[in-house]
Design brief:
The chain has a domain at 24-60. Helices cover 17% and strands 17% of the residues. The protein has one helix at 10-19, and strands spanning 28-30, 37-39, 49-50, 53-54. It has a two-stranded antiparallel ribbon. A two-stranded antiparallel sheet has the order 3-4. The protein is elongated, with a radius of gyration of 20 Å. The structure holds zinc ion.
Length: 60
């Protein structure tokens, strides 16, 4: 088993977690199809388009 040499102190651990926060707000971009705000690299929740193509059928 590979073991860490020393126990990481709470201060050191917390410093690391605060430096590269894992809980960041999603990056929002303007949808190229409906021009609404959507999450980057995700299917638009408003029109269901991704990369100019319909991915999921619009529920009406
Ligand atoms: Zn859209």
């Amino acid at each position: 088993m590979i073991e860490p040499k020393k126990k990481v102190s709470k201060a050191r651990r917390n410093k690391r977690h605060s430096a590269n926060s894992f809980a960041t707000a999603p990056t929002l971009v303007v949808c190229s199809h409906c021009h609404e705000m959507k999450e980057s690299h995700k299917v638009c929740s408003h029109c269901g388009y991704f990369n100019g193509k319909p991915v999921k059928a619009k529920s009406e």
